[in-house]
Structures are given as structure tokens and as C-alpha cells.
Design a protein that fits this description.
It comes from Pelomicrobium methylotrophicum. InterPro entries: Brnchd-chn_aa_trnsp_AzlD. This is AzlD domain-containing protein. The protein is an all-alpha fold. It folds into three domains: 9-38; 40-64; 72-112. The protein is built from five helices and no strands. It has helices spanning 2-7, 11-34, 42-64, 75-91, 96-112. α4 (75-91) packs antiparallel against α5.
């Protein structure tokens, strides 16, 4: 049965429908509950912490275990660029664009040598 379904011309549409349902279900629930959540509640703070932790883990993974062309640069270059970007971010108190520009620029300069 599953093999027949996988060969069906409708299979890509079924997969697309499943992916859309999984995505829009959570967006819809977010719209429903957005007005009911207090920003100072413990639950909201917990979600905020989890979100930042996931983002930090993804950034760390990209720096330490990159794929593609970034994997060809030495780890020391990637760490130096990340540290420079973080220093600018702390110095500018949240200046994301300058931090990204400095980190990216340093990585380009180090990789060009």
C-alpha cells in the first residue's frame, strides 16, 4: 500500500499538503494565543530562553561544524570572526548590522591571505 502511494502522481501534493498543515497549524495557534499571553509570564520567558538557546546552538554548529565552502576555512578564522562580531555587538549594544559587517569582513580578509 505504501509503495503504491509513493508511486502515485498525487504523492508530491500529499507531501506538500502535510508540510503546509504542519507549518500553518503552529502559525494559526500563535495567532489564536497571541492576545492571551502575557509577556512577563514565566511561560513566555521560558519560550524566549529556549528560542535564544536554539539560535545559539545553530550559530555554534555553523562555526564549529560548517558545511560547504565555509568548511574550507580554518576554525581559528571562523572563531576570530565570530569573536570580532560579538565584540562589536557588545560595544554597540545590539548593533547587529555593524557586528555582521565586521565579522564577515574579518573572515573575508583572513581567508584571502
Amino acid at each position: 500500500m505504501a509503495a503504491e502511494l509513493a508511486r502515485s502522481p498525487l504523492w508530491p501534493w500529499i507531501l506538500l499538503l502535510g508540510a503546509a498543515a504542519g507549518t500553518y497549524l503552529w502559525r494559526g495557534l500563535g495567532v489564536v494565543f497571541a492576545g492571551r499571553l502575557r509577556r512577563d509570564s514565566l511561560l513566555f520567558q521560558w519560550f524566549t530562553c529556549v528560542t535564544y538557546a536554539m539560535l545559539a546552538a545553530l550559530v555554534a554548529r555553523v562555526i564549529v561544524l560548517p558545511v560547504g565552502i565555509l568548511a574550507e576555512t580554518p576554525l581559528a578564522f571562523r572563531l576570530a570572526a565570530a569573536a570580532a562580531g560579538m565584540a562589536v555587538m557588545l560595544w554597540r549594544r545590539g548593533g547587529l548590522v555593524p557586528a555582521l559587517a565586521v565579522g564577515t569582513g574579518l573572515l573575508i580578509v583572513l581567508s584571502a591571505t
